[in-house]
Design brief:
Strands 1, 2, 3, 4, 5, 6, 7, 8, 9 and 10 form a 10-stranded mixed β-sheet that branches. A 4-stranded antiparallel β-sheet has the order 12-11-13-14, with no helix packed on it. The radius of gyration is 24 Å and the shape is elongated. With 244 residues, it is an alpha+beta fold. The protein has 2 domains: 100 residues, no CATH class; 126 residues, Invasion associated locus B (IalB) protein (Immunoglobulin-like). Helix content is 25%, strand content 37%. Keywords: Signal.
Length: 244
């Protein structure tokens, strides 16, 4: 038998299986799209890379931490399909993407985590996070870069530098070549200090932080590019305002 023909014969079952799976995948996505809750999302795409869509399972939509399924009108919703083995169903979570002042933003609606910037490895990128207290239901949101965290709560803004602080030691933050500002213990700045620092950061090109880490009692220094800070601050205000 011709070698090419022999290889073709061997591969036919594989091609057939792939075509069948592809057909089922399209059918399943079509079915999922028509579910009212999913249809309302208007997903621009569906990521099925972590699941095989080969059965007519029920569909669970992961609840958003935000008040609405879109926190900006000009955004896109990207949907992700996973298997929930506990309920033998598909679990749909979604991410919202948009652009502010030319900077791309991506936010996970499951927990408010996200990215402000082109990619995680970009020196200009900031990360976002939100957290809800299990006892009081009060929530906070934050933006983070290197060793700098800016938190927003019902009490206002709070700047924090570093983690695992050496007991009794303070931290420093320096904007450009200006005089450093010292924190209280554990790298925390008062709400008044934080408000002033955030106001000054809006015009800073770089920010340098220093804290003393436990248990080594050594300085940890970090200098960061502040190009995307103003956009990150806008995102922080947005996700806090829209949080449910």
């Amino acid at each position: 038998m011709n070698k090419f023909l022999w290889v073709t014969v061997l591969l036919l079952p594989v091609y057939s299986m792939a075509a069948n799976v592809d057909k089922v995948t399209k059918q399943e996505i079509k079915r999922i799209k028509e579910i009212p809750e999913i249809k309302q999302l208007d997903c621009a795409s569906f990521d099925t890379s972590s699941v095989t869509l080969d059965k007519n399972k029920s569909v669970l939509l992961v609840e958003s931490v935000f008040k609405t399924n879109k926190i900006r009108n000009d955004s896109k919703i990207l949907c992700d399909i996973d298997s929930d083995y506990g309920t033998n169903s598909y679990k749909i979570s979604f991410k919202e993407t948009f652009v502010i002042d030319g900077v791309p933003v991506g936010l996970q609606h499951t927990d408010g985590s996200g990215i402000v910037g082109k990619e995680y490895s970009d020196s200009k990128t900031w990360l976002t996070a939100c957290k809800t207290d299990a006892m009081t239901d009060e929530y906070t949101c934050a933006i983070m870069k290197d060793d700098l965290v800016i938190i927003k709560s019902k009490d206002g803004y709070k700047v924090v530098v570093g983690t695992k602080h050496f007991p009794g030691k303070t931290a420093l933050i320096r904007l450009d070549k200006n005089k450093p500002t010292e924190s209280s213990e554990k790298g925390q700045y008062s709400h008044q200090q934080s408000a002033q620092l955030i106001n000054d950061m809006a015009n800073a090109k770089t920010v340098t932080t220093r804290f003393i880490q436990w248990p080594y009692e050594k300085y940890v220094d970090s200098t960061m590019d502040m190009t995307n800070f103003n956009v990150a601050k806008k995102v922080l205000d947005l996700i806090y305002e829209k949080h449910n």
